[in-house]
């Protein structure tokens, strides 16, 4: 007999699952033995499907109670509920988007042999094709009164009890079960697709061109991060999985693609936590004749358009029910001014590193780094980051921590860079780009010294990129934003929920 879906109950033991698998494998063998041709059996190659469960629910949404339409449909779905009662069997079929419909298999419609086979061979989790009349039951439930049926794919492992909440471990490691069981998991996939489409639509509307740049690189660059290293047999050389596409996208700007963007994967061989994943989706964009102000405007529009695409409003509702307003004009604050206010003294790019170290010690911040800018950034995160509630652009960063950024047009030893904070985490960053090849070489040399001193995140000197700059890159603005984190900002979920198949140990 098929298993019935019951209320919350203990999950079966490994031994019970093994026993159920053996029973289901016997049913698989029997289905194959009953097949009339090689295309049938437990896994037929094609079925006479004429519609889908969502389409039937949409087309017959207003059907009254206890109505027979006379309309015959052929559809398929996964069995998530089954109840066998003598001459009439009930099953709930679920489509990939979570839509459900009831299938009624009766002795009068399918005959004694077919009804008995249904009872003996159909289990929870099986994909089943049914053909029959669209009706509503006496309780008003939209149903298919089955005239014929066929196994579409036999499940040899039982589903978890769908009334029980899946553990986080199961949700992450077995996302396919999560997608079957949980509406939020399915919604996350659809929301991510809406966000990516919205980003591309926004860029297309303002004349940006999407390109693809290498993921395997002979030299990692474009960010301060530790790379993954691999080896190419064809070239007999070590290669790096890219940590950022920046240096290639800037080559495109040099070549005349003046508004360019890419949405693709980055890889950083670093820690993993609630906001970081070693593999993540990244958006980067560059605009000739823009600067960090124009890129902040663009980033705000990209995020607000994405919120509209997902929620229909700039006010998004997170998974826990919290409403968060992404609308309006977002705050722009100075890193140095806000830090000065927080510590009660003026902090500038000229503040001696000894004083910054003392402030870090007073705050209990453990850091040992040769760059004063690292202390400024760590102090700012300690004192201010957690207090940001609204979306906020944090403007004007230390020069020594931003080797690819243009110096500030009016503040010494500061660069024109912002970080955008939403929900207490950094979502995006933007620059006025450094396009002077002489200054860029000097910055790379300083980074190379740090790398030689053992800093695994320091950038290497990239001669090919410098050569491209020497042909002339127009003044430009650039921005980068994590797609996974954008989903976090819109949905309120953690990063492992926004990535369909996250990397886990």
UniProtKB/TrEMBL annotation:
Subunit structure: Homodimer.
Chemical reaction(s) catalysed: tRNA(Lys) + L-lysine + ATP = L-lysyl-tRNA(Lys) + AMP + diphosphate
Aminoacyl-transfer RNA synthetases class-II family profile domain segment(s): 192-502
InterPro entries named in the record: Aa-tRNA-synt_II (IPR004364), aa-tRNA-synth_II (IPR006195), aa-tRNA-synth_II/BPL/LPL (IPR045864), Lys-tRNA-ligase_II (IPR002313), Lys-tRNA-ligase_II_N (IPR044136), Lys-tRNA-synth_II_C (IPR018149), NA-bd_OB-fold (IPR012340), NA-bd_OB_tRNA (IPR004365)
EC number: 6.1.1.6
Co-factor note (free text): Binds 3 Mg(2+) ions per subunit.
Binding site for Mg(2+) 2: 426
GO biological process: lysyl-tRNA aminoacylation
Signal peptide: none
NCBIfam families: lysS_bact, PRK00484.1
One GO CC term on file: cytosol
Domain of life: Bacteria
Family matches, as PANTHER family: LYSINE--TRNA LIGASE, CHLOROPLASTIC_MITOCHONDRIAL (PTHR42918:SF15), LYSYL-TRNA SYNTHETASE (PTHR42918)
UniProt cross-references to HAMAP family, sorted A to Z: Lys_tRNA_synth_class2
Keywords: Aminoacyl-tRNA synthetase, ATP-binding, Cytoplasm, Ligase, Magnesium, Metal-binding, Nucleotide-binding, Protein biosynthesis
Location(s), subcellular: Cytoplasm
Main subcellular location: cytoplasm
Protein name: Lysine--tRNA ligase
SUPFAM superfamilies: Class II aaRS and biotin synthetases, Nucleic acid-binding proteins
Residues where Mg(2+) 1 binds: 419, 426
GO molecular function: ATP binding; lysine-tRNA ligase activity; magnesium ion binding; tRNA binding
Cofactor entry: Mg(2+)
Renumbered residue ranges of the record's region Disordered: 1-22
Family: Belongs to the class-II aminoacyl-tRNA synthetase family.
